[in-house]
Amino acid sequence: MLTATGRVEELLGRLTLDEKALLTAGDDVWHLPAIPRVGLGRLKMSDGPSGVRGESRGTRRSLSFPCGIAAGSTWDVDLLNRYGAGLAAEARSKGVHVLLGPTICVQRVPVAGRTFESFSEDPLLTAELAVAYIRGVQSQGVAACAKHFACNDQEFERLTISAEVDEKTLREIHLPAFEAAVREAGVWAVMSAYNRVNGTYCGEHPWLLGEVLKGEWGFDGVVVSDWLGTHSTAPAALAGLDIEMPGPPQHLGPLLADAVRAGKVPEAVLEDHCRRVLRLAERTGLLDEPAPAVEAEDDDPERRRLARNLAISGAVLLRNDGLLPLTGARKLAVIGPNAERLEPGGGGSSTVIPLQRTSLLEALRAQFPGVEVVHEEGCRIDHDVPVLRTGLIPEGLAVEYFANREWAGPPAATDRVWTGQYVAFGTPWPGDAGSAFSMRARGAFKPDRDGPWELSLANTGAARVLLDGAVVIDNTKPEPGESLYGFGSTTLRTTVELEGGRAYELLIELDSDATIVAGYRLGARPPARPNGIARAAAAAASADAVVLVVGNNPDWETEGKDRESLALPGEQDELVRQVLAANPRTAVVVNAGAPIAMPWADDTGALLVLWYPGEEGAAALAEMLAGASEPGGRLPISFPKRLEDLTAFAAYPGSDGAVRYEEGSLIGYRDLDARGIEPTFCFGHGLGYTHFEFGEPEVTQSGGEVRLSVPVTNTGERPGSEVVQVYVGAELKGFAKVALEPAATAPVEVTLDERAFRRWDGGWRVEPGERELRIGASSRDIRRRVTVTLP
């Protein structure tokens, strides 16, 4: 029987030059082409990293897990390993071989649009969690694809911006997580970033891809371009880019075969690319199961429990003036723009349609039986007319596809769409071979209130919206715009008087000939309730306690654009101030994916950051408020008082096509702590429902390796968890999480190897001499200090 290497080499030897080249580019948005002659099926990729969407956006639901920064807040490598395994099972249910995640660029500026996708501002914490996540994914035979390599840490001019950064900063801050993904986790795929580094696009960067990734680190997997992030044929292939996505190819594939024949690219380079792709196919089981799997909506109870556990373990209790857990309340006011239904995730390619949409009000009523729960929105935070998500009763919209642009003949396929947004990446239905199609989505829409509703529509091709048979929006002669990832039209808006509680027949018609992205975005904004903040304050005053949920949504935090400031959108700060004035027994819950300004933080009864918690967020939050579970998170990112307090912000977002990393290694807490600037909340901070004491550490040293054993005691009356954090000077270099019952003591072990003490100086160097190790519960809550001497 052939070994894995033997199978790959045998298959490689059977392929023609043109067939080898075919495997270097997608044949549509998500697949590499099959080669039936040799029994090779189509390798399938899918967006992650906090769920597995599958091929389309809108027609297939998936379990929505907590976002990356929520996972980073767990500081729990064992849980991240289980998270990866759970995502792999989700991938298998969608027939996916390569999961596009984790996102492991460090968070350089907290207003970056994809801050919520990444784990942390710290390279060590990011690396440790990335390794655990990747190992979990790949333990189930699914490839993880670490992204975006490298310095893809802002959305401003994200397709072209050049990160001007010295090698010391790269080596110490921006590359360690990728190095760990390769050397420790053995990641099977890496995605090159859109941006440039020091003037060269990452997808054709010889130093990043060739010298460092494949040479120095010994990466034996595939480098996949970000979608439409390939810019050349020979330069990309020679630098080390293995796969151009999406298809049809613009630079690799057949054009690479032509470049080989023309002598511009050695055939050995093509063979190396192809060998890596075949190795990926072998690792993911494609050589054994070439037939494509049918996508399923697999609501697995174990994975749902995992998602809830992640949401609880990643929630960070920043402040608690004795309010939480809530006890003795007879009336609970639930207030805020995100209060009735939490936002599960941020926007962009990471978005999935949740399997379930649970109400926080229902979750609280279940957790607090006999307690009256009242609700007020207070204010709205719409960036644009929000996508229609609720009121589609009860099973979404039935979809009919036609293999022409005239809705002619019998449907070629049917499906179901679950929100007002439908996006097809490539083929709209399995087996569709062409780009021209039409579709109808039909169902019932029941608005929840009377009055003037604002409706909006953007689309590819031509589309219109009908209610009860009457056209309410006609965009059959669209103007080009920026919607739908830049492939869609400008947005048309209209206002329609609707009757709350009445079911309207909703019909959306679309015809399109798009080859990459096709679809529409139907928005619906209900009429505003007058005097929202005053109503909220009155509800707060009449209640025994208040849960006030503020934050952002996928229109504010999304791939493609950065936030303008740390401020909460809309009138939320005023809402918080008036509710706190009406009832100081208010727990403020932040449902967002990045740091925000909190001018009212010191006045809250409790302050909890829930992040984007996935679809189990409502149940998780209700458990924590009731005390059935304890928030287990610690901040993986600093919450600065002002953006101007961060050195990196002085160079953001750049000019003349470049952003200069003038801060060097001083990002996040390293920067704030070094300059003595007080944040709103510091890196590593987080409370629970109990208290811990750190005993005197035992230190064992063997050469350059230092082992610490720190006795930790739970001095409170409830079980809980603590994170022991070890800093060398001002930088996190080790950590461990421990869970303890009341009055229990356990030794917490942290090992620092020579990497904890090294610096880049044209190569890694460890200077001999004394080092102070600071042991604490955050970067500023240091409990113990010890000194070691390095040989």
Give the low-pLDDT segments: none
Chain-averaged pLDDT = 95
Query: Roughly what percent helix?
Result: 10-25%
Strand coverage percent: 25-35%
Radius of gyration: 26 Å
**Structural class label:** alpha/beta
Could you write a compact summary of the structure shown?
This protein has 791 residues and is of the alpha/beta class. It contains 17 helices and 38 strands. α1 (4-14) packs across α11 (267-283) and α4 (77-93) runs antiparallel to α12.
Key terms for this structure?
791 residues, 6-stranded mixed β-sheet, 6-stranded antiparallel β-sheet, 17 helices, 22% helix, globular
Task: Explain what this protein looks like in three dimensions.
With 791 residues, this protein is an alpha/beta fold. 22% of the residues lie in helices and 27% in strands. It has 17 helices and 38 strands. The strands form nine sheets. It has a six-stranded mixed β-sheet with strand order 11-27-26-25-12-14, with helices on both faces. Strands 16-15-18-23-20-21 form a six-stranded antiparallel β-sheet, with no helix packed on it. A five-stranded parallel β-sheet has the order 1-4-5-7-10. The mean pLDDT is 95.
List the helices and strands and how they pair.
Layout: H1 4-14, H2 17-22, E1 45-47, E2 56-57, E3 61-62, H3 68-72, H4 77-93, E4 98-100, H5 123-138, E5 143-149, E6 162-164, H6 167-174, H7 176-183, E7 189-192, E8 196-197, E9 200-201, H8 206-216, E10 222-225, H9 234-239, H10 254-261, H11 267-283, H12 301-314, E11 316-320, E12 331-335, E13 353-354, H13 360-367, E14 372-376, E15 392-402, E16 413-417, E17 421-425, E18 437-445, E19 451-459, E20 462-467, E21 470-475, E22 492-498, E23 504-512, E24 517-525, H14 532-541, E25 545-551, H15 572-582, E26 586-591, E27 606-609, H16 617-626, E28 658-660, H17 669-675, E29 692-694, E30 698-702, E31 705-714, E32 720-728, E33 731-740, E34 745-752, E35 759-760, E36 764-765, E37 769-776, E38 782-790
Parallel strand pairs: 1-4, 3-13, 4-5, 5-7, 6-8, 6-28, 7-10, 12-14, 12-25, 25-26, 26-27
Antiparallel strand pairs: 2-17, 8-9, 11-27, 15-16, 15-18, 17-24, 18-23, 19-22, 19-24, 20-21, 20-23, 29-31, 30-31, 31-34, 32-33, 32-37, 35-36, 37-38
